[in-house]
Amino acid sequence: MNSKILGKNQLTKFIDEFIGEYRVFAPVKKGKIIGFDEIASGKETCLDFQNTKQPPKSVFFPQTEVLFEYKKGEKGLEKAGSGDRDKILLGMRPCDARALVIFDRFFSSGEHEDLPYLQKRERTAVVGLACNHPLNTCFCTSLGGSPFGSEGMDLKLVDLGDEYLVEILTNKGEKLVEDIKWLRDAEESDLNRARDLAEDAENAMKPKISTDGLCDKLDGMFDDPVWEGIHQKCIGCGVCSFLCPTCWCFDVLDEDTGTGVKRVRIWDTCQFPLFTKQGSGFNPRPSGKERMRQRIMHKFNYYPKDFGEFGCVGCGRCVRECPVNLDIREVIRAVMSV
Amino acid sequence: MSNPYIPNIAVIRKIITENAVNDIKTFEVVFEDPELAESFTFNPGQFGMVSYFGAGECPIGIASSPTDQGFLQFTIKKVGVVTTALHNSMEGQKIGVRGPYGNGWPIEAMEDKNIVIVGGGFAFTTLRSLAKYMLHDENRDRYKDITIIYGARNPGELSYKYDLENWGKRNDLDLVITVDKGDAEWTGREGYVPTILKEVSPSSENAVAAVCGPPVMIRFTMPVLTELGFQPDRILLSLEMRMKCGIGKCGRCNVGNKFVCQDGPVFTQKELESMPKEY
Asked: Which value does ipTM take for this structure?
């Protein structure tokens, strides 16, 4: 599939091609914060950012999501969320797009697939945006990712300065651009330029953290004293998991609407004591030590054992946003040096 | 692919108060959809996600036996929001039921073996399902000697007194009931389950032990079973965990990379030995 070239001055026009037929979600600047939101016009889009404070996982896995509604007095259950238009998620960084693949594997595994997630995923095209300038908290390359990675994307935009290279990665992506006749075909020089930028971005992320053998190493470390120290400064606020593009743990609760009942799933976190506290009062993860261990084990041991890859993409949000500066890269180093 | 979170509607047709304190009740429910009521099958040891609309949903072991046709029973202790709402319900109340989930007791692998059932407190529910299944006329021949050791804090706390009475009359099982502390009328055994298990000393030869109870009972029961010669792959344990989805998605019932809702709740002691001690 040929790559295309999109002038930066054509970005609004490009996005407007989709508005109406699709619901489009893109980075939008609100005050000082850039975050993903649904847009009504291409001109709302702001691609001048390093990464958003929150990952766009809520497009597929909303913070609160109605699973179904039960109306009082009527006979059946009413399903929520049917008849929605297809979506486009534009401007997703490679780490966050790769996180979707981690979600995909998990939510489609086991005996019961997670329909609410998979339906949204199926009906959304991802237009990624390569990272020319990774942050100093980014560590995707230590975990098998790349600032120019394409996993999880249908199209990828690469910022070439005055224009974007549009890489077509899937049939879904092809379908998006096939009717946009005014896009010019990319030339060899454009591709070379993108390759150089990719190399620069990768080089900017050195040195990598060593994660070789991390999964196997953790196998024998469940009872290691290292966990006693690691969690000490953690205050258990859960922000690391709420902002994590690969955290999907949820709670399910009922909301009485007066005329019926909505069953809602909401984000939850393994960092809260109630997460595992049983009806009897017994809690298998009674302190921060067990809860921090669970988070680390899940991403670097349990998930890799089940799916063959780490459950962390190195986006660095938990590093940037932790109120007590607990750095997951330091945790990895501490574990690796045991 | 269908939405796995949508429950089936079931109607509570009978409520049985199980204990003297009145905080444990058995709810007998029937699916509203007659086809489902007919076709629903499960293994003893599996659980359902039971919901009271407006209060929420929680995992409850199925207490009835697959040999009970057309209805399900859930024995529920009143401890939180959902269970309180259920306890306040009357017969005729519509509730939600999803399932069956989990692996259940390995009833086929247990065939042609001597069976030792060890239960404590109201965690006896799925062991009751197992016992009812094995003691059913259609199945009794497939199992050898059956020993049931069941304990509760006091006589008032013993669930399923109607079953215990029937089982006590049978000569094809060894039923041992114990209470931590008896009352004036109690003439049976007194003592904690692990102690009584040691006294009864069921043979481990060609035997499988199925255990469910509070953590403290399990902690002291396991060494006794080992002492009696039960090999780790012949000790079965049903684990308890907080759950929200029942289908391995909500992320909280894992022990290592195993989900208790999906890979369990029944594990052999051998399996547990290779898993982190986080249950």
From this structure: 0.93
